[in-house]
Amino acid sequence: MRKTVIASALIAASAVLPTMATAADATPEHTFTSNVTLASEYIYRGIGQTNRKPAVQGGFDYAHSSGLYLGTWASNVSWLTDGNSTVSNSIEMDFYGGFKGTVGDFGYDVGLLQYFYPGTGYGNNPNTLEGYVSAGYSFLTLKYSHSFSDLFGWVGSKNSGYLELNAAYELVPTLNLVGHVGRQRVAGSTSEGASYTDWKLGVTKDFSGTVLGLSYITTNASSAWYTNLLGKDLGKDRVVLSVTRSF
């Protein structure tokens, strides 16, 4: 479950002709970017994925000037194996693609995201396919994700949904205040009580392409549903430190 899928961005390039008084802006037709993150813990939608241990994450993205994009992202995980000797898994791999653009002052993004957990010994398959749509204005983004398969192994949870509001407000140049609230609805009669709300408040600081983040994350998730076999409540309050470098 990916804490944060890092969406591909179109990079504006300016071409200045020395013999002309005006500058011509050009958008590259093809843009390739990559990123790597070291985090004190991988938390996705408020729920711990690495049992309070560090995570190494990274991804690659391709964007076309038309708005089409494709990408992949991966992280170490332990939530499927913590206390469960029958399961063999240590990584989450995400594959996504979609289309993004703008209408006036509003931005939009629509796409598909496949979560893939290579391994063996699963009861119900944790691999999950979601579709998503988002709209952004100024420093706010509203996004909805809908599962077209069972959600991360919850039996009978197809058509679950996650609605989130995200904010990134620039306090001063390179320093942002970030906020998040999300509601995970887990569908199906067998998962009664598994739905929850999560919140995040933090700051990010950009040091010439290296972003340092510090966030406080909490949920109202029921410990009856989100305590792993090692006795750790995965939805409990956390403070997470991360360092991300983009290329």
Characterization of this structure:
- With 247 residues, the protein is an all-beta fold.
- It has one domain (27-246): Porin.
- It contains one helix and 16 strands.
- The protein has one helix at 223-226, and strands spanning 13-15, 24-26, 30-39, 43-44, 47-48, 55-64, 68-76, 91-103, 106-116, 128-137, 140-147, 161-172, 175-185, 196-207, 210-219, 238-246.
- The strands form three sheets. It has a twelve-stranded antiparallel barrel with strand order 3-6-7-8-9-10-11-12-13-14-15-16. Strands 1-2 form a two-stranded antiparallel ribbon.
- A hairpin with an 8-residue loop joins strand 1 (13-15) and strand 2.
- Residues 2-24 have low confidence and may be disordered.
Which structural class do you get from the secondary structure elements?
Answer: mainly beta
Shape: globular
Just give the CATH class.
Mainly Beta
Largest sheet: 12 strands, antiparallel, barrel
